[in-house]
Amino acid sequence: MKKPVDLNAAYQPEHFAFRDGAKVAEIISRYPKGKQRSATMPLLDLAQRQVGEDGAAAKPPYGGWIPRAAMDEIARLLDIPAVKVYEVATFYSMYNLAPVGKYLVQMCTTTPCMLCGSANVVKACEDHLGVHTGETTADGMFTLMEVECLGACVNAPMVQINDDFFEDLTPESMKKLLDDLKNGAEVKVGPQNGRVSSMALGGATTLSEKADKLGIKKAG
Ligand code: FES
């Protein structure tokens, strides 16, 4: 899904400053002299996380994204043209360049997830939250986004919410997950159907002794 980018939008703040100067210095110091531009990606990530921390405490809340002022500040710190930072930030899907909800729900709809029912999961999200894919709920809690394969196909269908994967979803477990997040309840990361990691659905098929020790159900 194409990410919204508008460097001159009204929502862009005038200024951005990193709060943790020591962390910025540590990131830049990871790279050899003359190669400091390699710090662009981790600094973009740091900026997005800082905005997300501010947003989590705001009313209404918002999630992590990277304002143009942050990209300009990174360019200044690394002594490179701002366009070099814009190029990186606009290329990678993990950087949000416009405001998002506190919880960014990235719904995978690539073939394995599609075959396992991702269309129903997407519909459950849209119906339950009352927004379409690409939109943010009025309370600032959720943004829905459709994405390509996130590499957890064995546990399809799945979504990524902020830094976490939620897998083996059904429309019902998806709606419960959204409710729990909204209500601040504890949520279980990973498979939502009781499966252990990416083990066969019927239970362990090998390493029986280990499975016994860990109390994991065995197949057959
Ligand atoms: S197709 Fe959805 S995680 Fe790979």
Strand proportion: 5-15%
Structural shape: globular
Q: Tell me about the largest β-sheet.
A: 5 strands, mixed
Indicate the CATH topology of the largest domain.
Answer: Glutaredoxin
Whole-angstrom Rg:
20 Å
Instruction: Please tell me the CATH architecture of the largest domain by its name.
Output: 3-Layer(aba) Sandwich
Report the bound ligands by name, code or SMILES: FE2/S2 (inorganic) cluster
- State the helicity in percent bands: 25-40%
Q: Number of DSSP strands?
A: 5
CATH class of the largest domain: Alpha Beta
Secondary-structure-based class equals alpha/beta
Walk me through this protein's architecture:
By secondary structure, the protein is an alpha/beta fold. It folds into two domains: 71 residues, Arc Repressor Mutant, subunit A (Orthogonal Bundle), CATH 1.10.10; 89 residues, Glutaredoxin. 39% of the residues lie in helices and 10% in strands. It contains eight helices and five strands; from the N terminus they run H-H-H-H-E-H-H-E-E-E-H-E-H. Strands 2-1-3-4-5 form a five-stranded mixed sheet, with helices on one face. Helix 7 links the parallel strand 4 and strand 5. The longest helix is centred in the N-terminal third of the chain and has 18 residues. The relative contact order is 0.10. The mean pLDDT is 95. The structure holds FE2/S2 (inorganic) cluster. FE2/S2 (inorganic) cluster binds next to helix 5. The site of FE2/S2 (inorganic) cluster has 11 residues, from helix 5.
